[in-house]
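Need tokens for this chain, all 196 residues.
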Amino acid sequence: MASPMSAGSFLDALRAEGVTVVEVGDWAHHNRNHKGPWGPVHGVMIHHTASSGGERTVEICRDGYEALPGPLCHGVITKDGTVHLVGYGRANHAGLGDDDVLRAVIAEKALPPDNEADTDGNRYFYGFECENLGDGHDPWPQAQLDAIEKAAAAVCRHHGWTERSVIGHREWQPGKVDPKGFTMTWLRERIRERLK
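Here are the structure tokens for all 196 residues:
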């Protein structure tokens, strides 16, 4: 069990890992905490945005939609490898997912199949939305993949977690496909090497 790091510590951890960070507005106080608690935190969730255009993507992830208010994550990772901080605290990114998956993340064990949606993931996960159409054809530039690896590793390093604390949205909630275009096994291996 881990308490969420402070917004300042989050920013410091990302920069210490070599991430290029842009602070968007009053990101450190932009959250959905009035809808429920944030924490204890147990892991990092990776998503793709199903959108294109960095500026538009950051705006959507900060403000959200009428049916799903922002922030939709903590950081938006654009194609150029920049992490745009759009919120901090409870964010509308994970939604309901599988309690068996959460238990595996906490225990840092192999993930079971996600076959139910009975647990509030917005409470337990840091979230990074990654700019990509998610159609399996939109490329993932090396700078962006490096930033995803570094951002996730930064959070794991701060909390003393292993790569097994990093999951994809598709591993959490039945029916989700993100992130599409690389495997989470591949990403976790990169994070494992970085944490060495």
